């Protein structure tokens, strides 16, 4: 048993940074830093509507999810070759390893690329090769989750799934992202049923900007194993109770929520309430190149703004990240022990 009360608060920042953790909600295209966007644009002979890196970064002022997505898809348009996808993911893995991320499940958006004529094979092979290299170079365990863009049709989702299935061994599950409002989970009921039948894990963004009813239909219709974001569940006490009772994970992204104006400031974030209600909440970076930081930046900013979160909650959030992962029970047990050692030694 770890005596959390005996660990002084002065150790909190160090523990947040150095303890092992998993990241379960990172869009790999959202890790594309402006410097790499310009480098890839040059490599691929593309011109950008921004004079330089600073001008691009200055455009990162978002009022909601859609205003972000418009810039995010424009940034991703510089990705053309297998080597581009590999380079992007390797840059993320270097930063994640520095944050002591030992396990990562990466979202990728193939339709963003296939719509521009990039073969799905280039996307998946570049990312899969990077996952193998992350294991070799950083001892970081990584896997891929293919996301369907919900602003496109269900037929388009079936189409990209078909294109991706020859590479089935390289992804462990499917997710649902992009513009949430007006695109409820049930729009994708049949394609998710097919994915479940194929033995893929299933997750979905719900309750980021959309109502609690979208979280309920993600659970009841798509039968997801995790909810991405899900913070709007607080508007329905019955739903909070259901999520807590089932230990349904919520992959929360604090800096993202503030940058996309889901909350006016970090001090108003509902993460402490969700954790106190017994939900399996995890901390994640979402699109770190756009939202002001990687995983440890999210932990530090959250704990700085919310004094009700202490050492016990830090341990709980990191433990949840392993519990909620799609890794084997054996791997989870190893990480839980590693995590406990980090806190016991503090
Ligand atoms: N795609 C990338 N980031 C996203 C987010 N936060 N919500 C929905 N779709 C996304
Ligand atoms: Zn997301």
- The count of helical stretches stands at 17
Low-confidence stretches: none
In the CATH scheme, what's the topology name? TIM Barrel
Q: Total domains, how many?
A: 1
Strand content: 5-15%
Q: Which oligomeric state applies?
A: single chain
Level-2 CATH architecture: Alpha-Beta Barrel
Tell me the name of the CATH class.
Answer: Alpha Beta
Structural shape? globular
Q: What ligand molecules are bound, each kind once?
A: adenine, zinc ion
CATH superfamily: Metal-dependent hydrolases
Question: What about the largest sheet?
Answer: 8 strands, parallel
Write the layout of secondary structure elements.
Blueprint: H1 12-18, E1 21-27, H2 34-43, H3 53-58, H4 65-76, H5 82-98, E2 101-108, H6 110-114, H7 120-138, E3 141-149, H8 154-164, E4 173-177, H9 189-197, E5 201-206, H10 212-220, E6 226-229, H11 237-246, E7 249-252, H12 254-259, H13 271-276, E8 280-283, H14 288-291, H15 295-305, H16 311-323, H17 329-344
Parallel strand pairs: 1-2, 2-3, 3-4, 4-5, 5-6, 6-7, 7-8
Helix pairs in contact: 5-7, 16-17
The structure holds adenine and zinc ion (ZN).
Structure explained in plain terms:
The chain has a single domain (13-344), classed as Metal-dependent hydrolases (TIM Barrel, Alpha-Beta Barrel). It has 17 helices and 8 strands. By secondary structure, it is of the alpha/beta class. Helix content is 49%, strand content 14%. The two termini are 13 Å apart. It has helices at 12-18, 34-43, 53-58, 65-76, 82-98, 110-114, 120-138, 154-164, 189-197, 212-220, 237-246, 254-259, 271-276, 288-291, 295-305, 311-323, 329-344; strands spanning 21-27, 101-108, 141-149, 173-177, 201-206, 226-229, 249-252, 280-283. The protein has an 8-stranded parallel β-sheet. The model has no long low-confidence stretch (mean pLDDT 98). The chain binds adenine and zinc ion. Adenine (ADE) binds next to helix 4.
